[in-house]
Predict the structure.
Amino acid sequence: MIFKSSEEIRFMFLDFFKSKGHHVIKSSSLIPTLNDSSLLFVNSGMNQFKDFFYGFKKPKYNEVVSIQKCLRISGKHNDINNIGYTSRHNTFFEMMGNFSFSSYFKKEAIMYSWELLTSKKWFNIPQNKLVITVNSLDYETYNIWVKDINIPKENIFLVGNNNNIIDSDNFWKISYFGLCGTSTEIFYNFNDKSLKNFHNTKNSSYLEIWNLVFIEYNLNYLNKLEVLPNKSVDTGMGLERIASVLQGVKSNFEIDIFKNLIYLLYNFLGINVSIINKNILYIIIDHIRSIVFLIIDGIVPSSNDRGYILRKLIRRVLLNIKLLSIKKNFELFDLFNVLIDDIIKYEYIKNKEKLLNKIKYFLIKEEKKFLIILNKGLEILNCYLLKLKSGDILNGDLIFKLYDTFGFPLDLIKDVCNSRNINIDLHGFNKNLNIQKNKSRYYSKFNISNFATSIVCCDKTFFYGYLNINKFNTKIISIIVNNDNVNEICINQSGILITKDTIFYPELGGQRSDIGKFISKDKKSVFIVNNVKKNGNYIFHIGYILKGMFKLNDNVILIYDEYNREMLSCNHTCLHILYSSLKLLLGSKIKIKGSSIKKKKITFDFNYFKPLSEKKIFKLEYLVNSIIKKNIFINESFINDKVENNNLNLFYLKENFNRYLRFISIDNFSREKCCGLHVNNTGIINLFFIIKEYSISHGIRRIEAVSSDYAFKYFYKKRLLLNNLSKFLSLNDNFLFNGVKSIIKKFNLLKNKYKDILNIYLENLNYFFSLKECFVYKKIFFLVKDVTFLKISKNILYILLKKLIFRFKLQFILFLRKKDYIINLYFLLNSKFLKEKINIFVKKVVLFFNKENNINFNANKNKNFFYVKLSNNEFINFKLIEFIKYIKLCISGIYF
Ligand code: SER
């Protein structure tokens, strides 16, 4: 191969496709068009053509070619953490691509790429150095390579997951959702020999140089592929990568574009190349290029969105320069000044002086700000280190948190730790890093170098709760017991502690607070925090002293309950996902009308006029779970709040006396103003279920739902119930529903039969009770007849008599029976409140006879049924009919 400069490669690429009838389209700005809110930056050549792929607009030319400025620093395609650590990634790069909008498809695209790469007239790469990958479900593409191009079988590999094409290799998606299709990738093999297996890792000798994507689908929010009206082609070849092949170097940073920049950088810094860490230089150069192009495209450093990315890049350059420990004193702008001509060589700049002034203005401001922030970051690291003593190890998870969330370079952490003789848990750190990378998901655009946004202040109590440090040293500044400010609080006393700063999140915005404890350094005193409230400018920790005591100005260690916080965070993020899902399924008119986020459950109120069908509930659950499954990183951003709105019950970040509102976004799926606790990544939530949906007032419905562990618990409970039920009924799951249905049917049949029988008896009773032995007196039914002839059980008789009471609105039924010298009075009352009166009545009866009666109150006294036994030897001579006369006399005068 003959060496080709980057400039030659650019021209050849365009010329080749021009010769194939393609129209050259200029690179768009790095900022996506106004109507594209799904991307922060243009990250591939196809972005400016999205509407053509979807079929929303008709293109002027159906076959086009472009060299597009791209930035991969946020979203699904994000390379920032690879910079300097792999030779193949850059944040800013140029992507060369040819596109067909429903014109040619797989075959022509493959033929073109092969001709350009291998033909003597063009790039002239030896064919045996190229290796192809194809999605294992895309036989059409495989056959084109094998049959039309004649790729030897050892140079083509089927990759991907046959069971899940959406998340598989060689299935390209523009973002988590949207345009997508199978792809075929062309790799250059830097090794002399061909390799038996294909491993596309960052250390492998294969370099991906060209990606041909066959766009056929739209992946909707329900994770379903929708077929697009047209089939299109989108290819992308990174200029920097193909240049490394055509210039015979293994690293992007060794190609002509970077060589000169690095030379200029060395000269400027006056450092010895051999003793410095090259990775640091690569990061600096890479980021300076991105910074320049972002400023050219009109981005201003700020605390949100694109401006924040620019700020982050500037800060990363500053940090890395700090790591070089250079003696030379200079301002960051001086360095830019040296490099700028080389960087903008290929860009048309109308007024270079104006651009330089702009860069200078931004850099000076940012540098100043960053110093303050760097110190804050060091403070956080110190918080971690406070708990350790010389020789201890700083936990890898914490290091990763610092690195990932606050952008502390590992080397800086190492330096600080070394100076205190603290070792660092590199293994733990790498484990975290790999998990993150393997997921190949993006790093939150706000997760790096974001010290400023992590410390929030309620004017008086500084809130460090977003930092996820669950142990924190601070000082007690106020103690309140029984509404009085006191100097100390002792064992068993309840009260409120206020500290200078806190990591405890107070109950706010419908979300329950952190719980946990305060302990003294010597661990002898413990204050249990069972609630936290924001009160004006302070955060109140409410609880009691479990042991020991605390005094004003005491140093304390704050520890929140991690599990409680994890569950609250899962539920809060889930609530946001649920809200967006509802809007997606029921329409954008859906508004949140109230919510509560507890450890175990979420409730969400919204406006809707009718119950959600089972199908809708299922769809909703499915949608929420599909977002969870995507492992989307949660973005936290702070927007300058120009209108000071003190009514908003939110935390504000205060930085240089500016106020910021906090926004939580989940890709483009959800963006909410929110001060609550959230997980870093949706995947942590695992699972979500709706447990109830009902109306709470006119037009307002409520959803109760569970997530994470409580969703599993809910599931287990349901499964247990189902298992027990099917065991009890000896029916397996498949028959359970129909089985229970038929049991209920049988039961209802029996019930009706039983009712019929009762009715027959009742009719008979009517007849029976019409006899003269039965009569009603003062709403009391007297029953003197023996009813054994009815041949019904006592229970049935009881039910029948009760029915009789209600049918005739009787007070009670008195059932008299006499045997020899014993008279039994059976009472069946229509309410137990009559009992008192029955007592009076019975006493009267006893008095009436004025004999030494042996009176016996008996039987179910609590029920409405009981009986009284009267016995006397003289009774033997009484006829029952005479006895009734006396009874009637006794009843008169008592108002029933
Ligand atoms: N869009 C595809 C990519 O970015 C091909 O250009 O890889």
Notes: The radius of gyration is 41 Å. Residues 44-46, 97, 172, 211, 213, 234-236 surround serine (CB under 6 Å). The longest strand covers residues 206-219. The chain has a mean pLDDT of 83.
